[in-house]
Amino acid sequence: xxxxxxxxxxxxxxxxxxxxxxxxxxxxxxxxxxxxxxxxxxxxxxxxxxxxxxxxxxxxxxxxxxxxxxxxxxxxxxxxxxxxxxxxxxxxxxxxxxxxxxxxxxxxxxxxxxxxxxxxxxxxxxxxxxxxxxxxxxxxxxxxxxxxxxxxxxxxxxxxxxxxxxxxxxxxxxxxxxxxxxxxxxxxxxxxxxxxxxxxxxxxxxxxxxxxxxxxxxxxxxxxxxxxxxxxxxxxxxxxxxxxxxxxxxxxxxxxxxxxxxxxxxxxxxxxxxxxxxxxxxxxxxxxxxxxxxxxxxxxxxxxxxxxxxxxxxxxxxxxxxxxxxxxxxxxxxxxxxxxxxxxxxxxxxxxxxxxxxxxxxxxxxxxxxxxxxxxxxxxxxxxxxxxxxxxxxxxxxxxxxxxxxxxxxxxxxxxxxxxxxxxxxxxxxxxxxxxxxxxxxxxxxxxxxxxxxxxxxxxxxxxxxxxxxxxxxxxxxxxxxxxxxxxxxxxxxxxxxxxxxxxxxxxxxxxxxxxxxxxxxxxxxxxxxxxxxxxxxxxxxxxxxxxxxxxx
Length: 553
What we know:
Layout lengths: L1 H24 L7 H6 L6 H12 L2 H4 L1 H9 L5 H4 L1 H19 L4 H8 L2 H35 L1 H5 L4 H57 L4 H11 L22 H11 L2 H8 L4 H15 L2 H5 L1 H11 L16 H9 L2 H39 L5 H22 L9 H25 L5 H21 L7 H5 L2 H22 L23 H18 L4 H4 L2
């Protein structure tokens, strides 16, 4: 009977979001290029914030980040709290410049600032990584999370783990593709917002029920359960990553920060929501609201993993001891153990929404990149809006199928979240260095940008895939993967700066033109709110900082 409750509540909440999304978007224009890819440039700040949050908060974080928290503790909050720094940079520096040029894709900006070759290189980098890494990771981690929560063996009668994994991946992939390819960006954004509300409620529920579960197990109150958790495993509540941590504290100021800046300020999957803003004011409000919500992220993306570690090592609850070898299963196990059965179905629906959000957002961005920057630019320059949308949908189905075939091959990774962040660095470092220097130094020529884009990709690819064959890794080179990425970024920036000095742009200083796409009047509170958010980031770290992991007691 419990499984029936779980299944019924899951189907009910999933169908409810689908119905609400259809009612909100059924009259929207999805036949034009702007309507399909940019929601008619009419998004207001609640939808921008909700879509940004849920596009980011998928199961590669809910499953993967909590899995890392199980293994390493609070230090992994670096992937939530430091994101606020990047969001402030997006609101105050990058977004005004993006909206001024009226771009639909980041590669489009590359052509405006540099040339068509830069645009093509950037586009191909995005397409390859999205198809072979991002989309498969979303599907794999999503399937893993849902299998852990829903207990699909009992629901379906299928006992083979591999068969269930393939089944769940294809189910999520097909539904997510339908959302993205039939509805366009508006459908994606609206469903994101509804699911975002459910995700926040569900995420906090897991934390609250988890603490209550610990308290009940120890015959103590809820508040005492919090104290007990901190008292028993204080080393798991240190915000400062030590030398052997995957994200040492000093990596925050190197590769980790650059990856955040790339992700929130230049990643097409993310910035497409902000490019669809009704005005700069609405865009800034939405981005900064997302930043405020990210400060709460550790409560439901890190603390549950720490609780699962406590249940496995201190209380030794049945089933949790197996997580020591499979930390990515920690979140699903915790949800299934602490939530009442009807709520398990609700949370599974929320999780499904999070998976679909990230998948359909990335898929929509992939279609945008291909149709506008490859098909329209190189293959059919006179293509109509109707043809562009039709080709985008066809290409989207092809990419979705590729992702569904690749996703099961990711089984066996030690940390799916760690794998994703390292792969992000492959294209994040060269792309972000070129975008940043393009704005900061108006004399950087297109030849320098193209050289840095290609060399950056090649250097990092060699370090990731070739040097390990000879026993050389990024850790042996620099002590940590993110130190290495930070070093590469610094080298690329120096090359761009040096090149602009000895062989500056032939056309002279680049001047950005205002195409009048939207109202560029900024939000009057953008600067003070941004500063307040940065102060809260420092406070978050200071409250849980113990530098003895570096300097001893």
